[in-house]
């Protein structure tokens, strides 16, 4: 698998990273937003991945992770992941460093697929879903333009004031339920702003609305609160987009702190970790519904490993990742091309300039 086209042992020659231009919200998602990682090899094959962490993430890729990987054979990816985790332990484990590591891991998986001539879904065992339903996340209400584009909807309350009372949130969800009708899946994202009593009061008053889940009602660190909610809340509890590593997800799953876990493959440690998370969740009967699952970096795993896929629509600002499949009538399919099947215009992303400067 690691042999170059002329039969020699392929090695990593360069690792590049940049933060491509995008129109993300004017918050941490711009300042510490998505980074593109490219891993070049002496076989002339380049793997691409997307991680996070903005300039801080780029710095980690260009220093510690590049020092670790340049000159090395790009396999086995799982062993490389362990080495990257070890090398970033003093400052890493969670957050920006793991977001940066995720981009490198995904680039290694892209490389693995391109060398093998297989899609990532094929590497994982082959797609079991030809198409998968999608949902979209909207602010406060569901725009008419979104009807018909998705099979389910999630209302994100992150822009509502912290002082909003239970009744105002219930009203928002009642209007959303009236809009989509009784048979469409409907979820709510509280964006880590509630506490246990507030969540239980909301769930009691929203019971008739048949919500599919309440997402991140509490801080990701409030394990005691989540343990109580899973026991007492009549609406399923989801979370995990702000958790990192398969080991941390194993704790969420084994302690049953969520009904549904939502790893983000571009943040949680990449495909290497997402595969482990699916495996642990399967063993414990917990559902996985990845954050931004319709984006191409996670879609291959949903197609192959997910018994109940529901792919969250990608963010509109990642326009520089070409080759992302379209959502048609609320359905999406994983592409069959080698690796992730992405097409990156390096000049648009700013990668070409970096390469020329070296
Ligand atoms: Mg969320």
Q: Which structural class best describes the helix and strand composition?
A: alpha/beta
State the helical fraction: 25-40%
Tell me the overall shape.
globular
Termini separation (Å)?
A: 29 Å
What assembly state would you assign to the polypeptide chains in this entry?
single chain
pLDDT averaged over residues: 93
Share of residues in strands: 15-25%
Low-confidence stretches: none
Distinct bound molecules: magnesium ion
Main sheet attributes: strand count, strand direction, barrel closure? 9 strands, mixed
Question: How many extended strands?
Answer: 14
Order of helices and strands: EHEEHHHHEEHEHEHEHEHEHEEEEHH
Radius of gyration, in Å, reads: 20 Å
Query: Counting H and I runs of at least 4 residues, what is the number of helices?
Result: 13
Main attributes of the structure:
single chain; 358 residues; nine-stranded mixed sheet; three-stranded antiparallel sheet; 13 helices; 16% strand
Secondary-structure blueprint of this entry?
Blueprint (H helix, E strand, L loop, with lengths): L11 E7 L9 H4 L3 E7 L4 E6 L2 H16 L7 H11 L8 H21 L3 H4 L8 E8 L12 E5 L9 H15 L4 E5 L6 H10 L7 E3 L7 H10 L4 E3 L6 H9 L5 E2 L9 H14 L2 E2 L7 H10 L5 E2 L8 E2 L8 E2 L10 E2 L1 H4 L1 H7 L1
This protein binds magnesium ion (MG).
The site of magnesium ion (MG) has 4 residues, from loops.
């Amino acid at each position: 698998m690691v042999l170059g086209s002329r039969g020699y042992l392929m090695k990593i020659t360069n690792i590049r990273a940049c933060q491509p231009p995008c129109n993300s919200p004017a918050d941490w998602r711009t300042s510490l937003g998505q980074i593109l990682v490219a891993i070049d090899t002496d076989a002339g094959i380049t793997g691409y991945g997307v991680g996070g962490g903005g300039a801080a993430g780029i710095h980690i890729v260009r220093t510690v992770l590049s020092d670790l990987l340049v000159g090395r054979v790009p396999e086995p990816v799982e062993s490389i992941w362990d080495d990257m985790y070890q090398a970033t332990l003093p400052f890493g484990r969670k957050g920006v460093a793991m977001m940066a590591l995720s981009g490198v891991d995904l680039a290694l998986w892209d490389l693995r697929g391109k060398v093998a001539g297989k899609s990532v879904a094929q590497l994982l065992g082959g797609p079991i879903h030809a198409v998968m339903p999608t949902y979209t996340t909207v602010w406060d209400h569901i725009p008419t333009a979104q009807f018909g584009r998705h099979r389910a909807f999630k209302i994100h309350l992150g822009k509502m004031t912290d002082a909003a009372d239970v009744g105002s949130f219930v009203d928002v969800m009642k209007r959303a339920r009236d809009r989509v009708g009784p048979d469409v899946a409907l979820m709510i994202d509280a964006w880590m702003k509630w506490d246990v009593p507030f969540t239980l009061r909301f769930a009691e008053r929203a019971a008739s609305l048949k919500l599919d889940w309440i997402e991140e009602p509490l801080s990701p660190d409030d394990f005691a609160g989540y343990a109580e909610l899973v026991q007492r809340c009549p609406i399923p509890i989801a979370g995990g987009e702000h958790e990192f590593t398969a080991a941390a997800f194993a704790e969420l799953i084994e302690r049953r702190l969520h009904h549904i876990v939502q790893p983000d493959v571009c943040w949680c440690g990449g495909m290497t970790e997402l595969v482990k998370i699916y495996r642990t969740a399967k063993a414990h009967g917990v559902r996985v519904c990845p954050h931004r699952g319709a984006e191409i970096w996670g879609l291959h795993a949903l197609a192959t490993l997910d018994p109940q896929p529901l792919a969250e629509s990608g963010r509109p600002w990642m326009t520089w990742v070409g080759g992302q499949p379209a959502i048609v009538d609320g359905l999406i399919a994983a592409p069959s091309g080698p690796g992730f099947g992405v097409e990156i215009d390096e000049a648009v992303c700013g990668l070409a300039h970096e390469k020329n400067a070296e």
